[in-house]
Amino acid sequence: MTLLKINIDNKPQIADLNSKLLKEVKKASDLVSVSYLVDDTNIFESLNEYGLELIYNKAYEIQSYDIQSISSILKSINCTDISTVKIRPKGKANQEISILKILDFQVKYRNKHFCLYQGRWANFNISYLNFIEDQIKKANEIANYNYMFDLTDHCLDQGRKMQTANIAKYDQVTYAEYPFNIFLENEFNYKLLDRKIGQKDYTSIEFADLYDPVNHQSLIHVKIGKTPSLRYCIQQSLHSAEIFATQDDVLSIHGITNVKKIAMLLVLDSHNIISPNNEIDFSKNASFYFKIEIVEWASRIRGLGYIPEIIISKDLRTK
After folding, report:
1. pLDDT tens across 51-102, in order?
2. Which of 31, 99, 176, 213 is deepest in the core (most CB within 10 A)?
């Protein structure tokens, strides 16, 4: 990877790239997504705690942290220079960061492949791109589509009924992942770990959403949504696996001492990576960083001595 130097010679090139980016953001293109982790800052936590606002001459509240919401604001204010746009937790002027740091985008320009890296433009040589594509094929091999994990109105309704029927056992929260995990817990005899923490020095860490005591003693992270949520899930899964690898008694408080497999259940509202014959092809995802991160996740999980697995299902809700 080579960062494009910020100087007079590269100024026209950077301006062109910024213009291409702005055009795609305003279109709310699938080629652009947002990141939840930036410079070790958890944007997701800031969003939940304070809310976020976009700064372009003045502050505009971001209704939801996605490209559609950002696109709507930039179009309504007739933004012409995306490099001057910033975001921050609501009212936190000292925590502004460039919007370029939170955007995930790649484009071919003058026969080179460019992407945003920590808010700057960088290009990757063809050999590295080919390497990632080869590794993605290996990641495809550990992924499978399983219709039994599809998210439907029925299974979510069932999970919510179980949730509200047992207030002593289940937290009464409203986000969809929790009742879905309750449904899976009861459907497959899993152990529910969603909203449960570890022990010792890890009482603020959620190590997984589910534990399968039968299938290789699997720790399973569940994530519903688009690429930003999936990337966040990858980081959560890897972080908890790295801790468990060195502190294998951290979940003994929940009766878990043996883990052989680290799995992610990714519930997708866009099904483009699922082929007509239900094979998985992660190369269809537009995010270059998603591809890098899922390759690194699989490699690192193996390096820690676990079996990596990715379960893909569809979000089929109609409500």
Report:
1. 889 999 999 999 888 899 999 999 999 999 999 999 988 888 888 889 999 9
2. 99
